[in-house]
Amino acid sequence: MAKVILFATVALLLSLAPGANAALIASFSQNPSATPTVFATDNGTTTNIAVNSASTSITTGASGVIPNAFFSLAASSVGIATQIGSQIIERFNGNFCFTSAIGCGGTNYLSGIFTDAAFGANGGPGLTVNVNNPPDTLTLTSGVLPANILQPPSTFNISFADLVPLLHINGTTIGGFTADFAGNISSSVAAKEPAALALLGLGVIGLGFIRYKHKPTPYNYA
Fold first, then answer.
1. Residue-wise pLDDT tens for the chain (222 aa)?
2. What does the alpha-carbon distance between residue 6 and residue 215 come to, in Å, rounded to a whole number?
3. Under a CB-based contact definition with an 8 Å cutoff, are residues 26 and 149 in contact?
4. Where are the beta strands (DSSP E) in the chain?
5. For the chain, first and last CA: distance in Å?
6. Is there a contact between 207 and 215 (Cβ–Cβ < 8 Å)?
7. Among candidates 84, 79, 40, which has minimal Cα distance to 175?
8. Could you give the C-alpha distances from 29 to 132, 139, 157, 171, 205, in angstroms and in order?
9. C-beta separation of 187 from 144 below 8 A
10. Helix, strand, coil tally for the chain in percent (to 5)
11. Residue 38's closest CA among 30, 23, 187?
């Protein structure tokens, strides 16, 4: 019985443990601006979100703080917007780039192609685009970051704030809005697995416990 309990516990912990370590490789936010930098338009069935060479501060492990990069994003909705409880969810396909010149020109600090899910509270001032590869698609490239840290599992998260008008559905898609942005990107990094080491230690302890429980008891001839 003890062996069954041990194996069941280890199996549960393995199912909860992450498959690989990931680390933050870039964080970003738009530089102060008197006007919105995010523009979303819709026709009742499709929503297009665009950021056109917005002045951005980006921090990467390789280049440190880059105070005056240019960020561009283009994303289009696929399928329909769905409201679950108070949350609106819709999928998007798109691409983005952080570069040293407008129009995705100059040095490619970091760029990507993605499919994602965008979600936010109906009637709220924010919308979050969240890409997790897997199961979503995210392909990262860079002229300054090594390729080995751009592999999946990876994430791209960008938050749109101060939506005008507030988040809503128009027809079957998210309604148009203007907003500001900030976000972060993480990806796989070669590192030891603390969770795996902990599980190994648990297994060793458990096996020792089983061996102790099943140690024959000396017969008392007295």
1. 433 333 333 333 333 333 345 689 999 999 998 899 999 999 999 999 999 999 999 998 767 899 999 999 999 999 899 999 999 999 999 999 999 999 999 999 999 999 999 999 999 999 999 999 999 999 999 999 899 899 999 999 999 999 999 999 999 999 999 999 999 999 876 333 333 333 333 343 343 433 444 444 444 444
2. 17
3. no
4. 22-30, 38-42, 47-60, 64-84, 87-101, 105-121, 127-133, 138-141, 154-164, 169-170, 173-174, 177-188
5. 32
6. no
7. 40
8. 20, 21, 12, 31, 47
9. no
10. 15, 55, 30
11. 30
CA distance 184 to 172: 29
Question: In this structure, what are the phi and psi dihedrals at residue 135, rounded to the nearest 5 degrees?
Answer: -90, -15
Contact 43, 77 (CB under 8 A): no
Judge if pTM exceeds 0.90: no
CA atoms within 13 A of residue 17's CA, in its CB half-sphere: 17
Q: Which amino acid is at 11?
A: A
Pairing of strands 154-164, 127-133: antiparallel
Closest C-alpha among 37, 82, 78, 40 to residue 55: 37
How far is residue 94's CA from residue 78's CA, in Å, rounded to a whole number? 10
Would you call 212 helix, strand, or coil by DSSP? helix
Tell me the C-alpha distance between 149 and 151, whole Å: 6
Cβ(185)–Cβ(142) under 8 Å?
A: no
- Torsion from C-alpha of 181, 106, 154, 180, nearest 10 degrees: 0
